[in-house]
Amino acid sequence: MKKLINDPADVVPEMLHGFALANPGIVVLGDGVVVRTDHAELAAKGQVAIISGGGAGHEPAHAGYVGHGMLTAAVSGDVFSSPSADAVLVAIRTVGSPAGVLLIVKNYTGDRLNFGLAAEIARSEGIPVELIVVADDAALVDGDDTAGRRGLAGTVLVHKIAGAAAESGQPLEEVTRLARAAAASVATIGVALTGCTVPAAGKAGLDLGPAEIEWGLGIHGEPGVERGTMPSADEVVDRLLDRLIADRELSEGDRVVMLVNNLGGTPAMELGIVARRAVQHLADRGIHLERLWASTFLTALEMAGCSLSLARVGDKALALLDAPTTTMAWPAPHHGRVADQPIAATAVPEDRQRPSAPVDESLWRAVAAVCQALIDSEQLLTDLDQQVGDGDLGISLARGAHAVLNDKDTYDGTDAASTLRGIAATVRRSVGGTSGPLYAALLLRTAAALSAGHPWPEAFAQGNDAVIELGGARIGDRTMVDALLPAAAALRTGALTDAVAAARTGTDATARIQARRGRSSYLGDRVLGTVDPGAEAVVIWLTAITSTLEATPVS
Asked: Residue 95's pLDDT band (boundaries 50, 70, 90)?
């Protein structure tokens, strides 16, 4: 287990302390209780207090939703453990008033018992208290031989609606009614790609293989209702939404809102992919998506995975969801119906206009050989780059190679220089990172030299000059230049095979030097023993060229 913690026993109080330091609108009372700093003013003006909570490990829930327009207080137990009834009672006594308190509880036995007992005690003390239970788990069917549907990320929507109703001055009875209606309308289902590790346990409770996915799980690292082979993201979203739509009995024309929730360890990139497909799926079903939020709402520690929550809404619920709030975790306001929008087409640049002549076939054989070699070497270059860089070189060069092959018919074959300019345009558009601009510069300068009447060896050498000028690297910096410059020098006096041999020698030498350029420069001695991936790529494509041309001096 590797976590940024001190003593596992201090995780919750230290976390809440940090939350409060970062959010001047909340204060920690101890015993896991977090309250709004203005709670006394709210009580004095007769505003209903909204309290929620549960075990820690679901952050930003629940402390992240304490603030104007949402919760008045939140109560946190230990990781994945319900807070005690006494801790809940502290929160009720602190923020409660004659206006009353609404407790929003997820459907877990410990939470129901402890919040329920605290509510009984508070009522006996004269504090009006109502309690609702959120059971939005669509993976389980009512009546199953289980403890019932679990409370999941849809609970956050209930927080928002209840909090906005309370902030607007609604009485306890109406706030409770609206919260119950919200809880009844929402359904959630999730998938996990990994387990999660409770700090005190030291190891994950859910062990998933590299190609496995867990369907329909809760938020405590427990197994779901099914384990299967990992499908594509679109297939995951389609299956989840089909289940939610059936569970809520939604049909064409219905209005809904949706949460796309990160379970803890899912990159924003993947949430965006999920959100994109979810919008498309609902549009295909004729269901009107009124609001969409994609963020981290309620987690299971560092679990990789996501959940989707759908709730049927009307105008009143939408108004409450749109009402302003100033909490740490609720995202920026989102107004207006969400519709799937195609990516706007871009104008065709001048360098991709219809060619005036087809590409010379002998030149294209060499270009195609280079592309195929880079595609075939994708994994090799990726493995090397993962050891000493960021791991994207093989993917980037293979993507560029595919793009060049696809763009053949757009290249002007009037002469070699025109073709190289077209390839440079493809490369700069399709190859990311540093490789794209460097290879584009190499091709453009080489093309300019050919147009000026220089032979290929001299043109190639001038192309290398462009790489050096743009990137700033020199021999010995452990970059592609360590292969390019020796190859260019050998090509001036020898054959292509000599250039390949010189590039190979220069590349092998990079395994014995520290990097002074690029991401490898941050790794110090750890790069020693591994050749530079960029230099290795030069050897690969030079070798591919020799396979299509005779190994004789080039003039």
From this structure: very high
Residues designated catalytic: 220
Q: What is the C-alpha separation between 401 and 474, in angstroms, rounded?
A: 26
Q: How confident is the model at residue 551 (pLDDT cuts 50, 70, 90)?
A: very low
Helices (H), 252-326: 268-284, 315-322
DSSP 74-112: EEEEEETSPPPHHHHHHHHHHH--TT-EEEEEES-HHHH
pLDDT category at 70 given cuts 50, 70, 90 is very high
DSSP state of 343: P
- Report the range of poorest mean pLDDT among 131-135, 224-228, 315-319: 224-228
> CA-to-CA distance for 526 and 73, rounded, in angstroms?
49
pLDDT at residue 39 greater than cutoff 70: yes
Q: What is the CA radius of gyration of the chain?
A: 31
Q: What is the pLDDT of residue 522?
A: 46
- Which phi and psi angles does 71 have, rounded to 5°? -85, 145
Examine the pLDDT at 521 and tell me if it is beyond 60. no
Nearest 10 degrees: CA dihedral of 440, 443, 449, 454? Answer: 160
What's the token pair of residue 91? Answer: 């929160």
Are β-strands 255-262 and 305-312 bridged in parallel, bridged antiparallel, or unpaired?
antiparallel
Please enumerate in sequence order all residues whose Cβ is within 8 A of that of 278, keeping only pairs 6 or more positions apart, or say none.
Answer: 237, 241, 258, 260, 292, 308
> Which residues are paired to 106 by β-bridges?
134
Mean pLDDT, residues 481-498 taken together: 94
The rounded mean pLDDT for the chain is 91
The full DSSP string for 465-496 is HHHHHHH---TTSSSTHHHHHHHHHHHHHSBH
Angle at 79 between CA 78 and CA 80, to 5 degrees: 110
Calpha distance 228→211 (Å, rounded): 8
Q: Which residues contact 163 (CB under 8 A, 6 or more apart)?
A: 50, 65, 69, 70, 71, 72, 325
Q: Cβ of 514: how many Cβ atoms within 10 Å?
A: 16
CA distances from 172 to 181, 300, 314, 315, 452 (A): 14, 31, 21, 21, 83
Q: Give the distance from CA 524 to its chain's centroid.
A: 30
